[in-house]
Amino acid sequence: MMKQNVKRIGSWLFILCLMFILAACSGEGASSTNTNEAKEELTTEQGTNKTRIISTVTGDVEVPVNPERVIVDWDLGHVLALGVEPIGASKTILDYGQFLTPYVTDRTEDIGQDGQVSVEKMIELQPDLIITWDRNAVEQYSKIAPTVVFETQNYDNIHEEMTAIGEILNKQKEAEEWLANFDERVAATQAKIKEVIPEGATFSIIDVGTTKSTIVVGETGERGGDALYQILGVTPHPLVKSEIIDKNESRLDVSWEKVDDYAGDYIFMITTGDDTQPELPSVWNSLDAVKNHHVYELNIKKYFTSDPLSALLQAEEMAEMLAKGN
């Protein structure tokens, strides 16, 4: 039996050798073509795995040259602005960044509330790059995929933020193009309100719906501060400037008894936009802006976020409200 097996194997080896010889004789020209195709396929395969080193606030990080499966635990608008839709994002931003909704499809999955994201969900999504605001999360996230800390507070303006995120995503050209379009839209938006706002008029953003007290907003952070003061470039109420902006604070909690001290000639009022909005006390109706019908309501679910894309869309909506007088 063993001899029969050896013989069978020998016969098959002979046939295989003969086939290779015939193929070589009859297709020398084709072999050259096939070799080139193999090299092309190999190059493509290697290309998908190429990496590069970028400098971050936590040191050098090796990231994909062209990341395709990005997770962000906060800065959704930054990546959307450059045409990158992530596979995972914080539920907080998905719920409270409604200006971004038109740019998000079913591709972007909920990874949990800010500060309580699901590591299990992140693993399931198999990202090739994670962008986080949280330095403390880097060690854990890095076990899933290359992780880059992106801290917007380290940048002085939107141009610097978008240039930085463009470098992280290797979308430098897209960042330049977006910023050029951004500048054009900002100029048009500022021109829209110039004719309707009296010279010297002051502005405030006051949140009257999401906390027990009131929140007066500065020019950074959430609730439309970037949009109003940095993009539209209007004049803040003097105390908003001295007590919040000049002190590099994003906001100030103010009692209802003191709200008049921070109320500008024009007020953008942050509300919940639903039935949970509390009734305003009588002191609100005593404000000059209220009496003069210079109060404009902003829904927290649209104005909570402060990324460049959201801020631009917020500023354009604010300008439209001011131009229409409603």
TrEMBL record:
GO BP of this protein: iron coordination entity transport
Protein's membrane topology: Lipid-anchor
Compartment(s) of residence: Cell membrane
Signal peptide range in chain numbering: 1-23
InterPro entries: ABC_transptr_periplasmic_BD, Bact_iron-sidero_bind
A single Gene Ontology CC term: plasma membrane
Main location: membrane
Top-rank taxon: Bacteria
Keywords per UniProt: Signal, Transport
Domain Fe/B12 periplasmic-binding residue range list: 67-326
Family: Belongs to the bacterial solute-binding protein 8 family.
Name of the protein in its database record: Fe/B12 periplasmic-binding domain-containing protein
Organism listed in the record: Domibacillus aminovorans
Lineage: Bacteria, Bacillati, Bacillota, Bacilli, Bacillales
